[in-house]
């Protein structure tokens, strides 16, 4: 970041620089704005417009500071909203609905989407969604994933993410991963019920899987599927253990340990039932893959 502020682009970074100098009230001030890959386009555009207005004298420095006071974060008392995250990361701040009251979810969601144009609330029940919908009428809800989301930034999604789950019971986690990846800019396909108990079902999907840049593999029970997939493809595999299984699966601990002990190379593992973390990581990897030629 310091290199960008000094006007030095990192090696290989071809994104356009915007320079603003001679800002009224701050002589000699220079600022470099470079749209962040995967970041919130709406926030980036707001920042560029504001700086252009300051540089042109249409907006004073004090007025600009007033508009920017909520940029780092906004304090609601019960929550401090990180409005800056949509600039730094692939997604604006996501909201974990679990443990929050419906009113808290609604207040947080309304503030976040107003700044970024996108919203993702995970582990949200119906009561929470009804409250959110009152504050954010265009919020959609996926019953299976228990995820509410808003996307006011139509854009072309990058191909390259495949999501594979072992059983139908793993679909809630798979849908959470799919929705997250799509909000982060990747067109994620979903292949379900191809677990190792019927491995021939997986083999039928190989032509599609070998074309992916990254594969999210979701499994409960003994958690063997990520190792099998990783042994068949030359791309990163993000493994997600689920809490699906009988007693000795220990609510996902057994597949978690199995995935951590995979003998196949190229497997990373997220937490139990963490579809959000897997979808986010897959989108970041896919974004990077689209920036550089893929080695066949």
Largest sheet: 5 strands, parallel
Structural class: alpha/beta
Helix-residue proportion: 25-40%
Strand order of the largest sheet: 10-9-11-12-13
Query: What is the chain-wise order of helices and strands?
Result: HEEHHEEHEHEHEEEHEHHEHEHEH
The CATH architecture term of the largest domain is 3-Layer(aba) Sandwich
Number of domains: 3
| Radius of gyration of CA atoms, rounded to a whole number | 22 Å
Q: What is the distance, rounded to the nearest whole angstrom, between the alpha carbons of the first and last residues?
A: 33 Å
Mean pLDDT: 83
Beta-strand residue percentage = 15-25%
Quickly name the level 1 CATH class of the largest domain. Answer: Alpha Beta
Net shape: globular
CATH topology category name of the largest domain: Rossmann fold
Which segments are poorly predicted (pLDDT under 50) over 5 or more consecutive residues? 1-39
Quaternary state reads single chain
Query: Please, how many helices?
Result: 12
């Amino acid at each position: 970041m310091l290199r960008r502020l000094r006007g030095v682009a990192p090696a290989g970074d071809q994104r356009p620089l915007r320079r603003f100098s001679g800002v009224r009230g701050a002589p000699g001030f220079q600022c470099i704005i470079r749209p962040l890959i995967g970041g919130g386009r709406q926030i980036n555009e707001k920042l560029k417009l504001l700086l252009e207005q300051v540089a042109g004298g249409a907006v004073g420095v004090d007025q600009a500071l007033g508009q920017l006071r909520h940029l780092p974060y906004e304090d609601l008392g019960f929550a401090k909203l990180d409005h800056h995250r949509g600039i730094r990361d692939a997604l604006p701040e996501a909201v974990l609905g679990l443990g929050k009251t419906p009113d808290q979810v609604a207040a947080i969601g309304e503030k976040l989407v107003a700044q970024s144009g996108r919203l993702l609330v995970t582990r949200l029940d119906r009561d929470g969604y009804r409250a959110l919908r009152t504050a954010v009428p265009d919020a959609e809800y996926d019953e299976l994933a228990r995820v509410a989301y808003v996307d006011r930034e139509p854009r072309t999604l990058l191909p390259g993410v495949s999501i594979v789950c072992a059983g139908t019971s793993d679909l809630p986690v798979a849908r959470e991963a799919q929705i997250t990846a799509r909000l982060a800019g990747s067109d994620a396909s979903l292949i379900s019920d191809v677990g190792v108990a019927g491995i021939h079902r997986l083999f039928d999907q190989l032509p599609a899987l070998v074309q992916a840049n990254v594969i999210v593999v979701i499994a409960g029970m003994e958690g063997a599927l990520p190792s099998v997939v990783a042994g068949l493809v030359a791309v990163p595999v993000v493994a997600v253990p689920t809490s699906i299984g009988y007693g000795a699966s220990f609510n996902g601990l057994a597949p978690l340990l199995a995935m951590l002990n995979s003998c196949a190379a190229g497997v990373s593992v997220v937490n139990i039932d963490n579809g959000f973390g897997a979808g986010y990581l897959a989108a970041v990897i896919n974004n990077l893959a689209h920036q550089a030629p893929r080695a066949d």
